[in-house]
Amino acid sequence: VAYGLRVNGVTDKKFIEEYRSYILHTLGQAKNTGYHAMCFLRKYTKKLFDDGKITPYPFAKFQVGSPYEVEPDYLEPEELTALHNLYDSKELLKEVRTANNKYTKYQEFYIGEKYQEVLRYFLVACYTGLRHSDIKSLKGEHIKGKFIVKEMQKGREGRKKTIRIPNRKRLFSLLNISKGLIFESPVMEDSQTNKYLKAIMRIAKINKHIT
């Protein structure tokens, strides 16, 4: 979109308003998704403006605003146990999704393996409190006896912090210990992970917005 601003010279407030409306109403995205899209667009149009490639600065008269407050849902201990039992049962592996587009109409895709892997790293995140970036970079070398010992990827005020997490039985059962990454299948980005989590919660009959 920022490239389109540069090439087409469309740099007015009206374009940005129409783009936000497209995200929220045509694509049906959440308000916070629209907010982050505007922040992303503002970042790169500012660079284009600073480099003298567009003029005027399109956000001079457009306020992005603030992120919307969302009341988070939390898993109860028995719900977390139910999810772990679902993982152990391997029932998710039976899940099939039917495509319905002009290229693969009615074709079946075995989506269960992805559900199973997403649930695995989601459970590890629940048991450890590790962020997405730290789950993604978790390696066998971080398993030190009965602890996970890892330097956090994102430290406060530029400081690195090493944490020690007790490696309890249920947590340990989810970790494939090897020399490389614990999760050899790439850990998906947040948006795709959340998409699969929504389906997993529906299968587990947990009526909560879990991310």
Topology:
Elements: H1 2-8, H2 13-26, H3 31-50, H4 77-89, E1 96-98, E2 108-110, H5 112-128, H6 132-136, E3 143-144, E4 147-151, E5 162-166, H7 169-172, H8 190-203
Q: What would you call the shape?
A: globular
Run of helices and strands: HHHHEEHHEEEHH
* Number of beta strands: 5
**Uncertain stretches:** none
Helix content range: 40-55%
Largest sheet: 3 strands, antiparallel
The fraction of residues assigned to DSSP E strands is 5-15%
Distance between the termini: 28 Å
Q: How are the strands ordered across the major sheet? A: 3-4-5
In round numbers, the mean pLDDT is: 85
- What structural category arises from helix and sheet content? mainly alpha
Number of helices: 8
Radius of gyration: 22 Å
Describe this structure in words.
The chain is mostly helical and 211 residues long. The chain is 45% helix and 9% strand. Helix 2 (13-26) packs antiparallel against helix 3. The longest helix has 20 residues, at 31-50. It starts with a helix and ends in an 8-residue tail after the last helix.
Keyword list:
3-stranded antiparallel sheet, 45% helix, 211 residues, two-stranded antiparallel sheet
